[in-house]
Design brief:
Elements lengths: L9 H5 L2 E5 L6 H14 L3 E4 L4 H8 L5 E6 L8 H14 L3 E5 L2 H5 L3 H17 L3 E5 L7 H13 L4 E3 L11 H10 L5 E5 L5 H9 L4 E4 L2 H12 L17
Parallel strand pairs: 1-2, 1-8, 2-3, 3-4, 4-5, 5-6, 6-7, 7-8
Helix pairs in contact: 2-3, 4-6, 6-7, 7-8
Length: about 250
């Protein structure tokens, strides 16, 4: 049975959620509806595909929901110059949060200086515009030692968050990885879980590990469940269900 921690409000839950709208087959109506849902539930942000940033920024203007997008997505193998161009364009289109994929192959090859420079180049552009950067590791492909190195490199490059995954690899966020990442960065670096957080119970579990953002598609399910529990009723969707697709 779900237990809501004492003092936790709907806003606490909502402001951990980056509502994900990244699947390649999503049409304009789905993106627009997703942005309106994000505004209705007052989540932290939407995370949209780069081509959708302008549309999302227009819909969410005047709300407290940030517009985020992805850089070097989903494989991280773009040249740094390309990532910087993507970042500049996203910021010009209205994004204030950038989720960039690390150079996975370079990290695994031990080319740490290149990984650091890649992240730092995007961070420099983002911070100059008042935006934040979340660095996606894609943990499914990394050893624990590589994850720790990725944490240290992200922090050294000035990133604001470390993030588990894109949602498109064989696996997403695990409790073990989240705990490892949380203890491998300083307290001022935040941790984002992505991939598999589809229920209120799952969100509360990762929050307890120190996670402050979650990439989710099941936003409505999670927050409707919270409202039902807060009102003393039963969850409208059975535990473990997700009605809006996986992320």
């Amino acid at each position: 049975m779900t237990t809501i921690p004492e003092g936790m409000t709907e806003r606490h839950i909502a402001k951990t959620i980056d509502h994900s709208l990244l699947r390649p087959e999503l049409d304009d109506a789905f993106i627009e509806d997703g942005c309106r849902l994000a505004a209705e539930y007052d989540v932290a942000s939407v995370c949209v595909r780069p081509a959708d940033v302008r549309r999302a920024a227009a819909i969410l203007a005047g709300t407290d929901v940030a517009v985020g997008t992805v850089i070097g997505f989903p494989h991280g193998s773009h040249r740094t110059e390309t990532k910087v161009f993507e970042a500049r364009q996203a910021l010009a289109d209205g994004a204030t949060e950038l989720d960039m994929v690390i150079q996975i192959g370079a990290l695994k090859s031990g080319r740490d200086a290149e990984v650091l420079a890649d992240i730092a180049a995007v961070v420099e552009v983002a911070h100059a515009a008042g935006a934040i950067v979340k660095v996606i590791f894609e943990n499914a492909y990394l050893t624990d030692r590589e994850k720790v190195r990725a944490c240290h490199l992200s922090e050294a490059a000035g990133a604001d968050f470390v993030k588990t995954s894109t949602g498109f690899a064989p696996s997403g966020a695990t409790h073990e990885d989240l705990a490892l990442m949380r203890r491998s960065v300083s307290p001022h670096i935040q941790v984002k879980a992505a991939g598999g957080v589809r229920t209120l119970d799952a969100l509360l579990d990762v929050m307890a590990l120190g996670v402050t953002r979650v990439g989710a598609t099941a936003t409505k399910t999670i927050l409707d469940d919270f409202r039902a529990l807060q009102a003393g009723g039963e969850s409208p969707v059975p535990t473990g269900a997700a009605t809006e697709g996986g992320y």
